[in-house]
Amino acid sequence: MAKLARSVFVGGFPWEEPQDQVTATVSAEVCRGFLTLPYNESSVYCDECKDPLPLVARWTDSNRQSWNKYELPQGDFDQSSSRVYYSLESAADQIESEIPLGSGISRSLLDELLDSSEEIPESLKSFSRMRDQIDTHIEFVNDLYDQIRSKRFFWEGNCGGLAIRSVYRVTSRWVKSGDRDNARLALIVKLAREISRVLGHVCDNPRVVLRRSREFQKISKIQEIDPSCLRWLARQPGRDVYERAGSRQELLGVIRKEDTDTLENRMVKDLLHRVRVECANYISIHRDFLNHDRVRTVASFRRQVIHWERNSDVNRAKRLVGSVQPNYVLLHEPKYRKLWDAYQLLLSQQKQKDDIWKWRGRTFSESCEFGILYLFRKFARRSTFAKSDVIIQMEAVSGKFVSPQTQLGSARTKALRSNVNLSYCTGVQANRCPYIRRELYPLAADFFLVAQTGSSFERLVPVWCLIQTKKGMLDESLKLLERKLSRIPNSESIRPLILAYDSPGVEREFFFGQGRVVKVEFPMMESIQKLESIICRSLGIA
Amino acid sequence: MMQKVPKSHQFVGISANGPWMHTAQQHGSGKDSRPVATRVGGAHSFPNAVLLYRFPGEPFRLDMGEEPHPRGSGLSWPPEAIADPNNGTGRLPLGLIIENIESGNLVHWHQDEKYSYRSSEALAGAIAQLSASEGFDDEVVFVIPNNWGEVLQQEIIDAFRTYNLKCKLLWRPIAAALEWFGHFSQDLVGLVGQPHETVGKLLSLYIGYDHLEITELELVVCESARGEVCIVPGRARPTKHERIPSIGFRQVIKYLSCEGEPMRGEYAADTDRFGRVWNRLWCTQAISALQLKPLENEVFSGPASIEFERSICQMEQLNPNELRLRLRQFKSRLQTNYKGVIVSGALANAVFDERYRVWEWIVDSLEVTSVMMLAEGHNSDHGLLARGACRFAQRLDAKMPTYLDTLPRLEMVISEGGEPKWIDLLDPEQKWVDGGRLWKRPERIQNLSIAACSVDLKLAVAHEEFDSMREVVTGLPTTSETAEKVSLSVEIFPAQGKARIELHPDRAEFFNDERVFVDWRRMNEFITDDGKRATKQAYLDGLDRIFPQLLPRVSSATKSLAAKYAMNNLMETMRNGSAPKSVNQALGNARGLLREKDQKMYPQDATAFDSEGKCVGRFSLDDFMEVAWPYYEKHNPTEFVRALAYTHVDHQAYHEHILSQIKSHYVMDDFVVAAGKCFRDAEHVAVFVQALFAVHSTSRLTQTWWKATSEMLRFRGNATKLVSSEDCLKLMQLAGEVFKRERKRGSGKELFRLVCLVIVYTLRRRAYDDSFLAPESELAIWIKGEFRKARADAKSGKLRLIGGSVDLSGQLQLIIDYVDRKGKGQLLIEG
Fold it and tell me: A153, A158, A408, A431: which to substitute to probe chain B, counting the most B Cβ within 10 Å?
């Protein structure tokens, strides 16, 4: 397969297009990276992730050239880059290009660093808050996936790896998830309750094996020798055994020692490490509620784990390398089996978090979508909207749990003089939605909110979500967005909205006062009131 | 919400007739307990619907309540909401489900991919969801239209089974009637009679948006197991006239499509009219507010309007004037005064022409009256049918009589004495069977045979629901090296799907203690070799036969006319005691007329009297013989025996007289001819055959003997009953020799044809002895060889076959086929 290196267009913000000539060449220029390529049906792959890059927009420009826009994952360090693989004319000609990724830190490193320091370093504070936001979202969606509560008017169920939940339930649940007084029953809480005794028992009495080794021993203490010992003895000078034993009167003999370096203990050691990090993570999220039962359980569990790590013989086992093929003990010894199951769960959760971390921009956007769904439901208590299905995937794909197959009905609410129909459309569905103007397709908004009164089209709110924004970068790019929006006919009905996570000083109005940059904080429920009034104003339903 | 009560005391009825489903529950059987019906989704619910699934594993879902799910709502966003007549919709409204099940059951929805869905499963899935949420643990009773046959019943029962729902079906008019009984129970106390006596009639009117169902039910006195006498409704088998298209959907669609104000801006263009009307019809409560306006509708009728209406609901609909006309036509089938009238259906209480309710208008059109009239929505709450279904469940549980039903007609082909024929498996002539309870065929169908080494059993069945016949293949658990005799037992729950037919082998261990039932799922339409559907008769004709069907003589109307005149003259002559000479003259005259064949009816053998002694029109041979036989005994006119022979008369004294002559040493031809035409008893035929052998031992058999023999064999089904197989073989041998002689002479004239008939009809002995003339036996091989030679001779011109327009060579091949036990079709050789 021919591989040609090509330079491609990478935008640092969702709305950037090739003709804008603002190609990002280094990580510092990428807030949320997007790759724009001429239209092609084949998938685009990147070294950083196993799934194809998610397609976020498709449009045809004024020169009748069709384009695809794909979102890029965040990098793991400051000057991250990756290779992307794609085809242009035919699928057989695969092209690869080196592209910059947004700067960042890998999830495992972040967890290690945050766990190892008592005080969160300044440089990691923003990442720590991002981690809290993302983990909260993951826990929320996992809870939603695991619990089926079908009601008479709102059917729910799981089918073929997809969970169908009504908007009614999703939003009801989402409101409660923001209530941090009720610390989440996360996996680590369950583990703290279920495995702490078993783990303690194993750490106190780890399974050992008797290992033969050759060591110098006093002649009188030697109980066993083997051919190697004999060969060694034969090579020593002297006429008899005592002369050959030398001045220390020691000979090489076989000795049997108890050893904890077994596969199962290596697994336990690794489990201890991962549990400790996960505990720290949970406590960090709920640091304001340290007196909560669950938080205290986890904190106590962490202390125990640290104690076991320091004092248990398990610590003498070597580090676990690569993936583990469980042995007989792990599968059939009751205590180890329980720990093995816990280890698998933890591993899978951490893998999920690692994967999602790369796509934190998209996950944050999904989190914002739930917030908006909650507001829509609040605006219109009875409507097809509440009955709509939210389709949740078992595992996040490119940072999103909500399947692109989700289709939400409209919400009807009352405005000043008339009824208003509110519609919601995700960015990828924009092409199919009759209310979204085609000029908005290239801007790759995360989602759109539409308000209609009677037969007339009233307001259109494209929403972008940015999790890692720097003020200076955003200032520059906003001007570009304003120019683009100004070129759209009847742009007075467009009310752009940018939700920026935890970015101080970004809040402002733009686009002649029609647009807003809103800072969203963790937990999101705390920002929702502010968001509600802005959305109401944007949609004209105040 | 209903309180949960102990399992055995909860009765549930469900009715899905019309836009809303109703459920009724009754707790316990006490005197104070009554069924309470609720509309699914509440009183302000939009029309209920089933949401078709989008994802693998997603179930069918019931949509109800005040706000609909977006799927298939007709709006233009999101994509799953779009309703498009070409691509279907994701919403299957309950109001269309029954019609969909009746017309092929499949619905399609093309969103990203095209999927097909079975409406019955969609309905069952929705009820399963409802049952789970409402806690219906027990068997539910589901109301079905009165015209649903076994196939549709089975379809819905199978769909319910898919969802592990225990369900019984109940006819719609019966559900209505049971509620009527419940409502007027006090007024019916004085109504008594003898068990199974009809004490009056109840008229059930179902007025739905889809159609009207007008059913007369008999009020029958019934005795319960505990000896209590009560009155129950009796349901006759439905006729096609009982169902009339309604005006409901047409009215609603027209009303909605003419709505001036476009809906809330979702519709930018007129092309969205379908979506808009669909949304208003199925996702809002617009249908509840409908007022029917007859005059306005006539104005808006037109092809475009009908086309649009059909795109939304494909069922036939009428305009009010058309309906009124149909109702007036129907009036003649009804009586004017009924013991009771019960009106059910979602459209029944809708406002009509601002003055009436629809049911009033319809009752007025039918000109029926009753003092005990109950109308749903008027003097009975909505959910009447569901309540009736609930009452049925309660009565069934209490082992009380529920209703009386009639069974459908289901026939099967069996071979009786080698003759295939259709028999009724059920008992459609039986006046009443207990509704909801098992009916068993009194006796098994015996003497069926499974061929050696068969892996399955094929049954040919004809059902009144199908125009053509069907074949059911039932797999057998074991095979046998020899033929196995089996019998069939038949049982059916009226209105609960197909009959259950079990195979019982005579050798008990044949099925290894397994129970084998006819598998109706493996029933297919029977298609003949030329790719056509088969009627019952065509199927019989297509079967391999081991002997030919009888070839009786038929009566010709034209010949009868003249013959009757002559016979009446003859009778008068004899009654007057005229001289034998003049009687003989009259007899000669009559004989000429009686023996004349009607050439217009060729190749049928038609004379004035048929082979059973009957003629077209009014003439009694018995009356004739009352005059003629005494005269014959007194005067003995010579022409009498011969002339009477052509009437094929069945007169004992006449037969005895012929028999006595046949037994004698010398037999006149007249008596031989008379024996051939008139003998009916198997005993007489056996005597005749012995006489034939006696004659053959002394002289050559004349053509008259062969003709008489052939006539007896082809006219009388029991002719070979008392002739032993050895004698039959001897007869065939003799006939075969004559055949060979004639063939060698190159003469294919009457004698040749007569011995052909004797050979082939002697095969009817197989009815009594299945092993008679095995195809591989020496005689059979010889006979077949002679027939093949005759065909070859005829082809080469050595043998001149005279058979009129009949292909005699082909008929010879047919005889060979019959000898080989695989004959098909009627022989057309003229005797």
Answer: A153
Interface of B with A in 13-72 (CB under 8 A): 41, 54-59, 61, 63-70
CB atoms within 10 A of CB A237: 7
B79 and chain A: CB distance < 8 Å anywhere?
yes
**Tokens encoding A34:** 């997007």
Name every chain A residue with its beta carbon within 8 A of the beta carbon of B68: 384, 387
Among chain A residues, the shortest Cα distance to B74 is held by: A409
Among partner residues A158, A408, A457, which is closest to B78 by beta-carbon distance? A408
Read off the tokens for B178. 């049971």
CA–CA gap between residue B267 and residue B271 (Å, rounded)? 8
Find the helix or strand (DSSP H, E) in which A485 lies: helix A471-486
Tell me whether A227 touches chain B (CB under 8 Å).
no
Q: What is the pTM of this model?
A: 0.79
Asked if B70 and A407 come within 8 Å (Cβ–Cβ), the reply is yes
Q: What is the pLDDT of residues B516-568, one digit of tens each?
A: 888 888 888 888 777 888 888 888 877 888 888 888 999 999 999 888 898 99
| A418–B contact, CB cutoff 8 A | no
Helix H or strand E encompassing B753? helix B750-762
The span from the CA of B126 to the CA of B113, in Å, is: 23
For the ranges A13-22, A88-97, A393-402, the lowest mean pLDDT is seen at A88-97
Both structure tokens of A301: 């569990």
pLDDT band at B399 (very low <50, low <70, confident <90, very high): confident
Q: Does B364 touch chain A (CB under 8 A)?
A: no
pLDDT for B263 equals 41
Residues contacting A371, CB < 8 A, separation 6+: A174, A524, A527, A528, A531
Name, in order, each residue with C-beta under 8 angstroms of B727's C-beta and a sequence gap of 6 or more.
B686, B689, B690, B693
| Cα B676 to Cα B684: distance, rounded to the nearest angstrom | 10
* Chains A–B, number of C-beta pairs less than 8 Å apart: 97
Concatenate the DSSP letters of all residues of A31-55 into one string. SS-EEEEE--SS--EETTBSSPPPE
Q: Could you check whether the bond before residue A523 is cis, i.e. omega within 30 degrees of 0?
A: yes
**Cβ neighbours, 10 Å, residue A401:** 24
pLDDT of residue B297: 47
Q: Round the CA-based radius of gyration of chain A to a whole number and report it.
A: 30
Q: Dump pLDDT digits (tens) for B621-663.
A: 999 999 999 999 988 888 899 999 999 999 999 999 999 999 8
Tell me what pLDDT residue B429 has: 67
Are A454 and B265 inside 8 Å of each other by CB?
yes
Q: How many helices (H) and strands (E) does chain B have?
A: 24, 35
What pLDDT, on the 0 to 100 scale, is given for residue B630?
92
Q: What is the ipTM of this complex?
A: 0.84
pLDDT per position as a tens digit, B104-130: 889 999 987 888 999 999 999 999 999
- Cβ burial of A509 (10 Å; 0-12, 13-18, 19+) is exposed
- Structure confidence at residue B1 as a pLDDT band (50, 70, 90): very low
CA angle A530, A402, A426 (to 5 degrees): 65
Q: Answer whether A244 touches B (CB < 8 Å).
A: no
* Alpha carbons A10 and A14: distance in angstroms, whole number: 10
Whether residue B265 is predicted with pLDDT greater than 80 in this model: the reply is no
Note which residues in 346-385 of chain A have CB less than 8 A from chain B.
382-385
- Maximal C-alpha separation, chain A: 116
Q: Could you count the other beta carbons within 10 Å of the beta carbon of residue B572?
A: 12
Cα–Cα distances in angstroms (integers) from residue B795 to residues B736, B781, B782, B786, B807, in the given order: 20, 21, 20, 14, 12
Helices (H), A77-152: 107-116, 122-146
